[in-house]
Structures are given as C-alpha cells and as structure tokens.
Design brief:
Layout (H helix, E strand, L loop, with lengths): L1 H11 L10 H4 L18 E9 L7 E9 L5 E3 L15 E3 L11 E3 L9 E6 L17 E7 L8 E3 L9 E4 L3 E6 L2 E6 L13 E5 L4 E5 L2 H8 L3 E9 L2
C-alpha cells in the first residue's frame, strides 16, 4: 500500500507547468527528410521521437522525447520547465522493427541518463487493471511510458523499470508498430490483455502538469484521475 501511495504522490507532486519549446528544439538539422520511408532492417533504425498534439488544440509539435525523466522516473519531453528553466536533451532511440508492419517491436534507448533498462515500454498504473478496454471500479486503465527491461510480445510481466526507483512492476515492451502518417512514420502503441486479446483502443496521452507520457483506453476517464490530459501521437524522425 505504501508503494502505491508513494507512486501517486511522486507523480502528481510537481506543480510546475511545461510550456512550448522553441521551434529549433523540435527539429534538428541532422534529421532526415520527414517523408522518407524506413528500410525494413531488423538490426534497427536510429532516430528521435517527436511528440505531437493530436487533439483539437492545434499546438503541433510539443517536443522530443527527452533523455531525462520526471521526478517519478517516467519519460518526458524536451520542453523548458518553469521551475528550473532547463532544456532537456532529446533521447536517441533504435527501432527493432520488422518488414511486417503489423508485427510489434521494441524501441531501445541509446543515450538515456539511465542505462540499467533500455526499452521504451508501458508500466501499468497503480490504480489500473492490466486489461485495457474493460471496465472496473478503478475507472480508466492506463500505463506510464517509461524505460523497462525486455518484455516479449504478450501480456504484461513484472520487470524492473525506471518508474519509482526501479521497483518491479507489470509492464509491456514489445508494443510498437510503424504506421504511415502525414509527413512521416508514426510509432503506434498497442496492448495485450491478460487473456491474450489485443486491446481495442489505445491512446497516447501527455500530462502538461507533470510532463508524464502514458497510454490509456479512456481519455476522459484518465483526465478525471489526472487532471488536464492532452492526446498526442509519436512521430519517428529517422537520422540520416
């Protein structure tokens, strides 16, 4: 019970609000053309993840996924923070994707500030179930985007992750696919329920108040738990 409470306090404890970074922070001259298609090479393709607004707010790119973490060990984005005014460096990643675009793969971090676990995965929230698309007294189901140990495709497993001091938690890691999007490829998450079924709806979300990223099966219900929530998408920016 103490661990659950500590997770909730650490995640929501920040009172700082993120604001949009300058355009020069969102695009790098070293990035390849946005419309290029990716080779289907299992050895991996390197690049960055750009977080874009997918709601009706019209704010466009919000930043890149950063090397640094929130206070609770969750992945965040490269925006200046009103408390420390520090610009976070972007995270470089490698996609271990397949020629079959429908086959989920892992995303490996290459320059993270934490090298103990390297996959970009999703860690089940303390008041969520492991079954997305189902309803319970806990309300919306969700999982935090964090770095995790390797988890093969399938239901969540208990693994070490960066969420709250490397406590073992249920997480999934082989959840990403590449889909064509306007101007370039998108990294799209999925979720496997405990019975092996694929969740019918998984949405990426950003919480401006804490800087955390998550996936959820119910945006409105997730906002009821967390406050302001912004629907986002992950655009992959491959290196030349």
């Amino acid at each position: 019970m103490f661990i659950f409470y500590a997770r909730f306090v650490l995640l929501l404890g920040s009172v700082c609000f993120a604001h949009a970074t300058a355009a020069s922070h969102l695009e790098s001259p070293s990035l390849a053309r946005q419309e290029q298609s990716l080779p289907c090479a299992q050895q991996g393709v390197r690049g960055f993840i750009q977080v874009q607004d997918a709601s009706n707010r019209g704010s466009g790119p919000l930043g890149l996924v950063a090397q640094a973490f929130t206070d609770g060990g969750l992945l965040t984005i490269t925006v200046d923070n009103e408390c420390d005014h520090i610009y976070k460096e972007p995270m470089q990643v490698m996609l271990h994707h397949h020629c079959d675009s429908n086959k989920p793969f892992t995303v490996e971090t290459l320059n993270s500030l934490d090298t103990t676990v390297r996959d970009v995965g999703a860690v089940v929230g303390f008041d969520s179930t492991n079954n997305f698309g189902t309803r319970s007294w806990r309300g919306a189901n969700y999982a935090w985007i964090a770095q995790t140990g390797f988890v093969p495709r399938g239901p969540a497993q208990s693994v070490v992750n960066t969420y709250i001091n490397h406590v073992r938690s249920d997480a999934e890691g082989t959840i990403w696919t590449l889909q064509d999007g306007p101007g370039g490829p998108l990294l799209v998450p999925s979720w496997v329920n405990t019975d092996g079924s694929i969740a019918p709806r998984v949405t990426l979300a950003y919480i401006p108040r804490t800087g955390a990223l998550a996936i959820t099966d119910d945006v409105q219900g997730f906002a009821w738990k967390m406050g302001d929530v912004q629907v986002v998408k992950f655009k992959f920016l491959p290196l030349e």
